[in-house]
Description:
The protein has about 170 residues and is an alpha/beta fold. It is built from 4 helices and 12 strands. Strands 3-11-10-5-8 form a 5-stranded mixed sheet, with no helix packed on it. A 4-stranded mixed sheet has the order 2-1-4-9. It is globular, with a radius of gyration of 20 Å. The relative contact order is 0.21.
Amino acid sequence: xxxxxxxxxxxxxxxxxxxxxxxxxxxxxxxxxxxxxxxxxxxxxxxxxxxxxxxxxxxxxxxxxxxxxxxxxxxxxxxxxxxxxxxxxxxxxxxxxxxxxxxxxxxxxxxxxxxxxxxxxxxxxxxxxxxxxxxxxxxxxxxxxxxxxxxxxxxxxxxxxxxxxxxxxxxxx
Length: 173
């Protein structure tokens, strides 16, 4: 009888704790689906683009699921926290200098038609998602992801609008 009471107590405590958690915590990771597109994807696409299914997410575990929809080019998704400083960019290689930029990680080198994912633990702030293949950033393959405190509302009406401006860069060797 004591064992049954112990199990009942654990279940009740678990339910009480779960009732106070935000739904995102109960559901597990937040997933952001990313489409990587260029002019080979569709004749209507003039430049490269990185499309997110949502650009504002709650803080915590965030899984980035990227699909390279290109028919010819390799793409990737690197994650950088927006520190307010320009990202180091090598003009001759057409790439961010990753060792100087402090990438948080990446979904790397997706061949045409392939998908990949990576999970990050993100605190509130703004993050850049960038394809760092040569000239892809300058071609438009980037996005911003805004991470808000777990209890903050998700949406644009409350000031959570996300800028579409490209990340600022500075030339380095």
